[in-house]
Amino acid sequence: MLSHRSAEFRKCIYNITPRLCQVVGTATAPMLFTCSGTGGLEAAIANALSPGMRALAIRMGSFGDRFAEIARHLGADVINWNVPWGQAADPADVRQHLQAAHPLEAILLTHNETSTGVLNPLADLVPLIREATDGFILVDCTSSMGATAIDMDALGIDCVISATQKALMSPPGMTVIAASDRLMHVAEQRNTSSYYFDFARMQEAIAEGTTTYTPCVSTLLGLDAALGLIHAEGLDAVFHRHQSAAEHFRERLSDSGLTLFADPAVASPTVTSLCLPDGFSATEVRSRLESDHRIYVAQGRQEWKEKMLRVGHMGWFQPQELEAAAAALGSIISPPT
Ligand SMILES: *Cc1c(COP(=O)(O)O)cnc(C)c1O
């Protein structure tokens, strides 16, 4: 294992940060904290808000619920905008929700809602939010970063949060957080209540090619390699590959007896959510996929636990794997008679 104070490790950080900047669409080097994506969401709230400050949580599934819950836990006054599961936040509704919650210190948004397989249209939503408020716009990009465009600086997003184990196709262990200069400035002045997740100190450490405390070094070596693959393929090619694989997979399932849970207009490039026909339980279908086909998928969450399957197609995957998943699902749901 490398020492996180060594020249070799510094090289790894200096390799990672400029390439992450391109993935996210920002000029400011992202921060790297040792924790999962949820820790990253908590870090963003702790640096952007103080107890008592008001935030609007745009919730469209269980990860949006979690973001709101963390803010509430840290003492924020959270107002909820509940979007029906399977839908994206409608840009036409932005003004009304922002007005009702005014004045706001932060807006919490999920880019790709992994629990429902829906991608929010950031390019439509964020400029409308920005126009109506100067609250910090914090975006959970855990299952979108590395698979689809974020354009953080161009859109005026204040903070994006992801984790290494999703579309960044690395082992779990690190969260990736990019923050705007505006947010960094406030975070520095405010002296966050979190000792570990201090943005100002982490930004300084990253600039010196290290992290504040001992990171998951092996995960960062993996991230370095993964970013090498992403950039060798080309960002646009990577984004296109995700989108076309998702479309092809859904097309392939169109007469399988499974129906798409998400509104097709906003269906995710990284995860497909499927409703099971009556008489099938997700636990059962999932275990048959595992035991008979060695295919691993996820179930729905909350009330959709037994009625939904979620198939991931992010980061390192092959078209043949999706083809095999579609064939196996077809053979279980509508076996040839
Ligand atoms: C995976 C995920 C998270 C974080 O989950 P961890 O297990 O804490 O890494 C947060 N938000 C979304 C949208 C996710 O997909």
Tell me what you see in this structure:
By secondary structure, this protein is α/β, with parallel strands linked by helices. The strands form 3 sheets. The chain has a 7-stranded mixed beta sheet with strand order 1-9-8-7-4-2-3, sandwiched between helices. It is globular, with a radius of gyration of 20 Å. The termini are far apart. The mean pLDDT is 97. It binds pyridoxal-5'-phosphate. Pyridoxal-5'-phosphate binds next to helix 2.
Average pLDDT metric = 97
Question: Poorly predicted ranges (pLDDT <50, ≥5 residues)?
Answer: none
Shape: globular
The total beta strand count reads 13
Instruction: Strand order, main sheet: write it out.
Output: 1-9-8-7-4-2-3
Strand content: 15-25%
Q: What is the H/E string? A: HEHEHEHEEEHEHEEHHHHEEHEEH
Largest sheet: 7 strands, mixed
- Helix share bin: 40-55%
